From TrEMBL:
InterPro entries: P-loop_NTPase (IPR027417), Small_GTP-bd (IPR005225), Small_GTPase (IPR001806), Small_GTPase_Ras-type (IPR020849). Keywords: GTP-binding, Nucleotide-binding. GO terms for cellular component: membrane. This is Uncharacterized protein. NCBIfam families: small_GTP (TIGR00231). It holds the Pfam family Ras. It comes from Rhodosorus marinus. GO terms for molecular function: GTP binding; GTPase activity. One of its GO terms (biological process) is signal transduction. PANTHER family: RAS, DI-RAS, AND RHEB FAMILY MEMBERS OF SMALL GTPASE SUPERFAMILY. The keyword Nucleotide-binding applies.
Length: 203
């Protein structure tokens, strides 16, 4: 179940789920890659034709990953380019990021490195490379129009040290998997940090 929330309004967990871990996630990437469509397919299992530029929208959705319930706030961001900066809305409180490009538009793929770098710079701190992220290639339904191969995208993901997944907002293929993969990354990072904190206390 999902509810769109007015821009700038911070929901409370009690307003949409009785139990579950609260996780705020952001979907970022260049313009026209289907970020909004990916979110709508995940939360409502619908697809809307046409393109309407997103300013910023926040959605609430409940999901279950490996037996654990999550209350997710999904931030649908405006499109980023190689000079975009990231303000408080895209950095404070965000636990993980889907970085999306279109497999049928090489220019959007070429923008992933600067988009990722700008994100890490905006987040700051020595451990920014550990921020949970998943690289996502959207629009795999358009096989005949594909301009970026799976192998190329996997190589970039290895370079960035993050997972790579593919999906289609049009057909729904892989949509749930990309969000669940990000939540697993978020939880895995949290466990590592918890262990490191315990070691510091003991020492």
């Amino acid at each position: 179940m999902a509810y769109p929330v007015a821009r700038g309004v911070h929901p409370t967990t009690g307003s949409f789920l009785s139990e579950g871990k609260l996780r705020k996630l952001a979907v970022i990437g260049p313009k026209c890659v289907g970020k909004s469509s990916i979110i709508l397919r995940f939360i409502e299992n619908t697809f809307e034709e046409g393109y309407t530029p997103t300013i910023e929208d926040l959605f609430l959705v409940s999901t279950n990953v490996d037996g654990t319930a999550f209350n997710c706030e999904l931030l649908d961001s405006a499109g980023q380019d190689d000079v975009s900066t990231y303000g408080a809305q895209l950095t404070i409180g965000i636990r993980g990021y889907l970085i999306v490009f279109s497999v049928r538009d090489r220019e959007t793929f070429d923008l992933i490195r600067p988009v990722n770098q700008n994100l890490l710079v905006s987040l700051g701190g020595p451990a920014t490379h550990e921020v949970p992220r998943v690289l996502v290639g959207n629009q795999i339904d358009a096989a005949g129009e594909r301009k970026v191969s799976t192998e190329e995208a996997q190589a970039l993901a290895r370079e960035l040290r993050i997972p790579y997944m593919e999906c289609s907002a049009l057909s729904g293929e892989g949509i749930q998997d990309v969000f669940h993969s990000l939540l697993r990354e978020v939880e895995g990072t949290a466990k590592v940090r918890k262990k490191e904190k315990k070691k510091c206390v003991i020492s």
